[in-house]
Amino acid sequence: MTVSHWIDGAQVACDGATQPILDPSTGQQVGEVALADAGVVDLAVRRAAEAQRAWGAASLAKRMEVMYAFRQLLVENTDALARVISREHGKTVPDAAGEIARGRESVEFACNIAAHLKGEYSSNVSSGVDVHSIRQPVGVVAGITPFNFPAMVPLWMHPVAIATGNAFVLKPSERDPSASNLVAELYQRAGLPDGVFQVVHGGKQAVDALLTHPQVAAVSFVGSTPIAQYVQQTAIAAGKRVQALGGANNHAVVMPDADMAFAASQIAAGAFGSAGERCMAVPVAVAVGGAGDALVAELAKEAAAIVVGPGDEAATTMGPVITAASRQRVLDFVEEAVTGGAEAVVDGRDLVVPGHEKGFFVGPTVLRGVATSMRAYCDEVFGPLLVVMEVDTLEDAIELINSGPYGNGTAIFTASGEAARVFTEDVQVGMIGVNVPIPVPVGYYSFGGWKSSLFGDHHAHGPEAVRFYTRAKAITSRWPHQAQRSVSASFDFPGHS
Ligand code: NAD
């Protein structure tokens, strides 16, 4: 099976380079994906620009009708989409269904886009002069997305971009590309005109062609921090509006007054759900004021209860990581930490899943006594590794978090409103959970981190996406009576009259 580009309402024949798609639970090839060159990208963007002219002029009623139909199709096809995601990504089918449900919130926001596109109106700002403002689509928007949420992260982008009247060209991850073509089919069935949602597959060559294409007006990117920085700089140099969401290293703080069993179960879900491959995962727990022993004991129980296996088996609670290289990275980080004196409270390095010996599995691992200089702590692990750090006070925990380069998400577990308030006020992070481990905001709020977790001015989805995907116009009007028309214009800059 070859997954090829979706252009003008159909998958196009692939006659260029391809790359294998692997099932991470077996390590075996399950298909191949076409890799777009600059010519393919140019075709997709030019046709999107043509389609956008009519779509941008379509009524709000029509655009919302398409979004309602798309939402319904997304609901009806959740299971099929989740199975495709699970096979190429490795996450469990219920986890994949969960990402579709969270992404659907953005479609639901877009179903009501008229409420968010209302302009302003001021009458009689000067004698007989009125001013009103409107927001118009920017044109063609490119979305470049990571492997870890093949449905949800694109869904943060395209529903709002399309509902606000733009055409959207998606370049999903080449590791799990199939979900994007399924979504394209659903848009077509929902009545979206061909060309308004295009998919080009590929890697750096496709991305570079999008970032520099003269007809791409705006770029939404989500991925690792070095690529996010590169995308932002390249797209800005090419004169585009850009938002580039990067990596993360999220800490969850556990105060001594927290319910340890509750905190540990929440943190384990954050650390090991989706094998730790979430930008809002919790790879670091920070135990405050002697909470370490109790927390580590509870975390060890949680880790022991995890069932590692293929994502499509009902008993599995944690699947493999995405590639053999990802697996090796996690093993290297653990090895380095243990050699340097850290204690492996739970050690998942030797885990073997019977019948899946070539799969990219790593067992859940919990480390204690890790130095801040070790890669297990300071790099983005993106695997099922949880590091427990120990500090004396809440202020020390906040200082630890604020001294790191990332600012995507964080959480505090406590029974104290005062501690929670100090934490939420002082921590330099974009999304915070209080007794909530993965605080991904609902679709009618916006999503975005601080520092090296986001380059650009706008957060993703929700109200900030409306502003990112539209440009403002202010219109000043006068409809003078016959008598006023004879008054000649002043050569001075007009003041108040
Ligand atoms: P990645 O940066 O490797 O890839 C992201 C996208 O960029 C893909 O479409 C890929 O094809 C493209 N790309 C890769 N290398 C490129 C290059 N040299 N030049 C141009 N384009 C390139 O990220 P990934 O491994 O797919 O995803 C995991 C990363 O994404 C993690 O760092 C994770 O934290 C991050 N992420 C962040 C968020 C967030 O909201 N901040 C959400 C999800 C994932």
Largest sheet: 7 strands, mixed
Strand line-up in the sheet with most strands: 15-16-17-14-13-19-20
CATH architecture of the largest domain: 3-Layer(aba) Sandwich
Provide a count of the helices.
17
Question: Which outline best applies?
Answer: globular
Query: What low-confidence regions span 5 or more consecutive residues with pLDDT below 50?
Result: none
- Percent of residues in β-strands: 15-25%
What integer is the average pLDDT? 96
DSSP E strands, number: 23
Distance between the termini: 71 Å
Instruction: Specify Rg, calculated over alpha carbons.
Output: 25 Å
The CATH homologous superfamily name of the largest domain equals Aldehyde Dehydrogenase, Chain A, domain 1
Overall domain count: 2
The percent range for helix content is 25-40%
CATH class category label of the largest domain: Alpha Beta
Bound molecules: nicotinamide-adenine-dinucleotide
Backbone structural class = alpha/beta
Verbal overview:
The protein is of the alpha/beta class and 497 residues long. It has two domains: 2-246 and 453-475, Aldehyde Dehydrogenase, Chain A, domain 1 (3-Layer(aba) Sandwich); 251-434, Aldehyde Dehydrogenase, Chain A, domain 2. Helices cover 39% and strands 22% of the residues. The protein has 17 helices and 23 strands. The strands form six sheets. Strands 15-16-17-14-13-19-20 form a seven-stranded mixed sheet, with helices on both faces. Strands 10-9-8-11-12-22 form a six-stranded mixed sheet, with helices on both faces. The model has no long low-confidence stretch (mean pLDDT 96). The structure holds nicotinamide-adenine-dinucleotide. Residues 144-149, 153, 171, 173-174, 203-204, 207, 222-224, 227, 230, 245-248, 279, 380, 382, 408, 449, 453 line the site of nicotinamide-adenine-dinucleotide (NAD).
